């Protein structure tokens, strides 16, 4: 079998399909969320099914009762996270785009989770301080999947809204390897580089980044445990 880079993406997608076939069977609510998002013209940037299952498992392993998501899109990942909640748990998910929030609310309601998922509309730079003032935390798990240039600010607020033992997860922190380019003039790449450097140097965290390949191409997840 060839291992050339030119065939790797197709192979990655095939392996993802194999994994999804074994571990993520068809699900009416999740499938409908993706279909509704497509029909509404939302960008096809939701996490993959196997990545959703990973978030679900991590939330269950940590016994997360309060979950914060920064970046809702069509609500696909929020559904995965909400299904991991114990009785009395809640997901608060932040979305800046009114159309995305509308689609997400409909998808979440269709999944039967409207009672445990709150979609807050507004720029995260404004809704995160509001959550802090409300005393909405501490959150047991934070999932960051929004504008990449904002990741450093989102990490700072995540530290304000969590406690020792909380888990912070961030998607898209490798960006096809573009994070290697220290001279990049892309604000998203520079934001991700600062975010990764903050993870590595923040004394209140112990963290790592894992590269991922698959239908989402070459990217990565950051995982950070709040320790102090």
How much of the sequence lies in strands comes to 15-25%
| Class of secondary structure makeup | alpha/beta
Helix-residue proportion = 40-55%
Reported for the largest beta sheet, the result is: 7 strands, mixed
Per CATH, the superfamily of the domain at 8-162 is Vaccinia Virus protein VP39
Q: Rough shape? A: globular
- The end-to-end distance, rounded to whole angstroms, is 48 Å
Poorly predicted ranges: 1-5
Topology order in helix (H) and strand (E) letters: HHHEHEHEHEHEHEE
Q: What is the rounded Rg?
A: 17 Å
Find the CATH topology of the domain at 8-162: Rossmann fold
Number of strands: 7
Name of the level-1 CATH class of the domain at 8-162: Alpha Beta
The CATH architecture of the domain at 8-162 can be named as 3-Layer(aba) Sandwich
Strand order of the largest sheet: 3-2-1-4-5-7-6
| Count of discrete alpha- or pi-helical segments spanning 4 or more residues | 8
Mean of all residue-level pLDDT scores? 95
């Amino acid at each position: 079998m060839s291992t050339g880079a030119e065939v790797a993406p197709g192979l990655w997608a095939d392996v993802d399909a194999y994994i999804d076939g074994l571990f993520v069977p068809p699900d009416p609510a999740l499938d409908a969320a993706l279909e509704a998002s497509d029909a509404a013209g939302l960008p096809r940037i939701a996490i993959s099914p196997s990545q959703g299952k990973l978030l679900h498992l991590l939330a269950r392993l940590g016994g997360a009762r309060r979950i914060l998501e920064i970046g809702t899109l069509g609500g696909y990942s929020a559904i995965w996270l909400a299904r991991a909640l114990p009785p009395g748990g809640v997901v608060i998910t932040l979305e800046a785009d009114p159309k995305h929030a509308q689609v997400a609310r409909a998808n979440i309601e269709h999944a039967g989770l409207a009672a445990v998922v709150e979609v807050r509309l507004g720029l995260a730079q404004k809704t995160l301080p509001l959550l802090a003032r409300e005393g909405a935390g501490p959150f047991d798990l934070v999932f960051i999947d929004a504008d990449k240039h904002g990741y450093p600010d989102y990490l700072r607020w995540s530290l304000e809204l969590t406690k020792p033992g909380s888990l912070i997860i961030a998607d898209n922190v490798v960006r096809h390897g573009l994070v290697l380019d220290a001279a990049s003039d892309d604000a998203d790449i520079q934001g991700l580089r600062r975010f990764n450097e903050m993870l590595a140097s923040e004394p209140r965290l112990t963290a790592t980044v894992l590269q991922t390949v698959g239908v989402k191409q070459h990217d990565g997840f950051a995982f950070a445990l709040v320790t102090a």
